[in-house]
Amino acid sequence: MLVGVKFCGGCNPRYDRGKAYEAIKKELAGTAELVIAEEGGEYDFLLVIGGCTNCCASYSQYHAKHGPIKMWDEAHMDDVIKKLKKQEE
Amino acid sequence: MALMNGAQYIESLRKLDTKVYLFGEEVKNWVDHPMIRPSIECLAMTYELANDPQYADLMTAKSNLTGKTVNRFSHLHQSTGDLIKKVKMQRLLGQKTASCFQRCVGMDAFNAVFSTTFEIDKKYGTEYHERFKKYLEFVQENDLTVDGAMTDPKGDRGKAPSQQADPDLFLRIVEKRADGIVVRGAKAHQTGSINSHEHLIMPTIAMSEADKAYAVSFAIQSDVPGLFMIYGRQSCDTRKMEENADVDLGNNKFGGQEALVVFDNVFIPNDRVFMCEEYDFAGMLVERFAGYHRQSYGGCKVGVGDVIIGAAALAADYNGAHKASHIKDKLIEMTHLNETLYCCGIACSAEGYPTQAGNYQIDLLLANVCKQNVTRFPYEIVRLAEDIAGGLVVTMPSEKDFKSTVKVESESGMTVGEWCNKFFAAAPGVPTEDRMRILRFLENICLGSAAVGYRTESLHGAGSPQAQRIMIARQGNIEMKKELAKAIVGIKK
């Protein structure tokens, strides 16, 4: 499973988005491949990592078969991991 | 060319032959000059973050001219969403540099010249808009930094450009040729001018027919013959010249830059001319540029404010005063003031509207309210920061003293460094050097070289307070408010 990742621009993040990305990537190793999303790429999911509740990252330019999964809080990490693991099952 | 990174940007400056004067002498290698380099590092950050996926959503945009991804600093705003992202990008860069990163003036000039040239062409049948679009494509393709230059030296403030005793005190056209124009004059207070590949010149005030020679807008490479810059001094700037300077600088990597940019009979080819004597559009261009730039301050100064609040909180921690209720309350007040500025930046963006040319303009009233607050709140923020930090901000010995191994002739036999570290230790577990670093940062931003960007630039940059009050008076819709009052109290006429 290929997951494209898009970050918001990080103007006032409430947590370390980069660390969250690395932690999710590590947890999903062997289940899903997480890569920085690029235009023209085809992904199974798009993970949008926002820094606050606004989660303002633009992502309509990316193609993901099963749409976006959004997170904007460290507390969302477990849900993201569970959701992606479940999809792989 | 794709987006440049920070190192590529710095190397691109070395290819320019920009003439720079500092302390009365020409500086040949200005890229590596210790007083200039920190401002270059700031600008490099605008390139570096554009290549980082964690920041690219704010730092880049899709060009409406070419469809390619460009640095947002060379983008024409296509929506209110773009205007909002501009402010967020500026907050981000303020956080990363704690300085003025200098590239906003170009972005604000692009958007103002784009929409104004469209309307000049519509009235006069000129071809400025198409010229400007080609120019901006060139800027975007090469990822250039452009100094959007508006402010003339102005001379006697009571007189119009054409009434000045010295006609050069406002930049003007001195010759019109078949292939271009020759200009003479200067632009003062130019932020980042030395670090810019190009200059985009605009008139500085609304003008009458008598001033038409001064109604001129054009773009020119920064190193053409006749163009040179004289560097502006900043408080405590020579600390940057001290050997191995680090802690005493407060911010040892980043800083701002202003210069006087002089045009001594500079030739501008026609394809770079975007206004030539259309004096009736000078006011429109000024108003639009100023509007964008007053919006900008609701982002950049907020980002710097974030760092100041963090530094003040750390100073309290290091002093062992962080549990005091008045300290907590002062940090709340600083946050309230800072976020109020951000609210204004976001609000004037969200209320933006499309110009006739299609790019988006901010709401003028709210942008002027934004900047009016910026003329005041940073002063209160640094006052509170100094309050929290304590007097040591301005009385502590130098870094060399703290590191000195020279023994003092006294009974204890301790070194100067040992005495300093003994008496300036505070909260347990906090290295004295860390405390010094935070206090020096606050010194620098409150009254050192960085105060140029955070204090006086907040007051006078993008127009002094009275300029905003004039705009607020024009845009304030007082007549409608009178009608509201009449309706409530039952006045018929």
Question: What are the main properties of this structure?
Answer:
heterodimer; A: 89 residues; alpha/beta; four-stranded parallel β-sheet; two-stranded parallel sheet; 2 helices; 6 strands; 26% helix; 26% strand; B: 493 residues; 17 helices; 14 strands; 47% helix; globular
**Terminus-to-terminus distance of chain B:** 65 Å
Rg of chain B, rounded, reads 24 Å
Which percent bin holds the helix content of chain A? Answer: 25-40%
Identify the strand order in the major beta sheet of chain B.
2-1-10-11-7-6
> How many angstroms does the end-to-end distance of chain A come to?
11 Å
Structural class computed from helices and strand pairing of chain A? alpha/beta
The overall strand count of chain B is 14
CATH fold group of the domain at 287-483 in chain B = Butyryl-CoA Dehydrogenase, subunit A, domain 3
Percent helix among the residues of chain B?
40-55%
Biggest chain pair interface: A-B, 15 and 18 residues
Helical stretch count of chain A? Answer: 2
Contiguous runs where pLDDT drops below 50 for at least 5 residues of chain B: none
Annotated CATH homologous superfamily of the domain at 287-483 in chain B: Butyryl-CoA Dehydrogenase, subunit A, domain 3
> Overall 3D geometry of chain A?
globular
Largest sheet of chain B: 6 strands, mixed
Overview of this protein structure:
The complex is a heterodimer of chains A (89) and B (493). Chain A has 89 residues and is of the alpha/beta class. Chain A has one domain (2-88). Chain A is built from two helices and six strands. Chain A has a four-stranded parallel beta sheet, covered by helices on one side. In chain A, helix 1 (17-27) links the parallel strand 1 (2-7) and strand 2 (33-36). The longest helix of chain A is centred in the last third of the chain and has 12 residues, at 77-88. Chain B is α+β, with helices and mostly antiparallel strands and 493 residues long. Chain B has a domain at 287-483: Butyryl-CoA Dehydrogenase, subunit A, domain 3, CATH 1.20.140.10. Helices cover 47% and strands 14% of the residues of chain B. In chain B, a hairpin with a 2-residue loop joins strand 6 (172-177) and strand 7 (180-191). In chain B, helix 7 (282-319) runs antiparallel to helix 14. The radius of gyration of chain B is 24 Å and the shape is globular. The model of chain B has no long low-confidence stretch (mean pLDDT 97). Chain A binds chain B through residues 5-12, 17-18, 36, 56-58, 61, and chain B through 53-59, 62, 81, 84-85, 88-89, 91-92, 95, 303, 306.
